[in-house]
Amino acid sequence: MKSYLYANFTESSTNYGNYIIDFATKEFLKKNITAPINFTEYDSFKDVIPQGNFDGLFIPGCTMLTPGENRSLDNLSQISFKSYCLAGSLWYSNIDKNFLVKKRLIKYSKGEMPNFSIVQDLSAIIGSRDSYTYNVLKNNDFNTLYTGCPTLFLDKSDIKDNNYVLFSFGRGNYYKQVSIGNSISKKHRVIGICHEDGDMERLLAAGWKNPIVTFHNDIELYLSYFKNASYIISGRLHGILPSIAFGKKCMYFGTDDTRTTILHDIGVPIYKLNDLKNFKDLCCVFENQNLFDFFKSNMVKVAHSIFDKE
Is residue 241 a contact partner of residue 149, using CB atoms and an 8 Å limit? Predict the structure, then answer.
């Protein structure tokens, strides 16, 4: 049995989206890799990567390709075994509009230059979660495939319509979000869902008047609120992606950055807060099955390049 170090990204995280990605990644591997694999998990947010007799370091993805996000991964060059990534993202708040030319970028708008200090130490095919990451890596001669996010392949069993609107809160603008959610609840049953530690306290302080749920170390219970909703209004990437996976009528009002280029490819509009009052007209089911099949095929190829090597 092969043994891999697993770069855990939930242990020290305050972002519940990491738990969704971690769960979806492990479910994907169970269904698509038949060879037995032993994972030894360590907290990738810490400074040191454990040494040992491992066949490799497995990086699930998320924004772990971005230097500084998971501190230990800034030290990949110091370990004695190879490193691999299933579905990673380079995260920058401003998307550069550039001409991509091999090893350099000719810039014509303001934004951050990509840092390849982690990517350059990866082996096998590098899985890219979004089209920004894929295009930047591909145009700089890295071996990569556009995999999308494993969240899109979550199990679709036990999906119901329990006649409520799930308000999946975004970052910031809490008073505005709360005001809009409370207004919607005058005509519809609304349940709020938090995505980060401290969100519930902030939202209640801002005047939230409806039921609200948070994460209690039970990812399947947490995801059930998405599975059972009639409509989902989300301000987080990993609020909208499970909504899409479960075939729900949904809309997105969150940030627009390098990570969300995957939403552009799926065809998800990015709305403003003031648009949310018209959610019934704007929410839709995103049935882009050809793209999802393309993502899954590529993710399987990346996984096999990691785990089926001699």
Answer: yes
Total-model pTM: 0.93
- Total residue length of the chain: 310
> Which carries the bigger pLDDT value, residue 50 or residue 101?
50
d(C-alpha 309, C-alpha 159), whole Å = 37
Domain boundaries, the chain: 2-152+293-307, 157-282
**DSSP string spanning the chain?**
-EEEEEEE-STT--BTHHHHHHHHHHHHHHHH--S-EEEEEEETTSS-PPPSS-SEEEEEEETTTSTTTSGGGGGGGGSSS-EEEEEE----SS---EEEETTEEEESS--PPP--TTGGGB-SPEEESSHHHHHHHHTTT--EEE---GGGG---TT----S-EEEE--SS-HHHHHHHHHHHTTTS-EEEE--BTTHHHHHHHTT--S-EE---S-HHHHHHHHHT-SEEEESSHHHHHHHHHTT-EEEE-S--SGGGHHHHHHT--B--GGGGGGHHHH-B----HHHHHHHHHHHHHHHHHHHS--
Fold entry, domain 157-282: Rossmann fold (3.40.50)
Structure tokens at 178: 């709360």
Amino acid identity of residue 104, one-letter, is: R
pLDDT in tens, 205-236: 999 999 999 999 999 999 999 999 999 999 99
Tell me the per-residue pLDDT of 251-275, one tens digit each, with 9 for 90 and over. Answer: 999 999 999 999 999 999 999 999 9
3-state secondary structure 290-306: HHHHHHHHHHHHHHHHH
Q: What is the pLDDT of residue 93?
A: 82
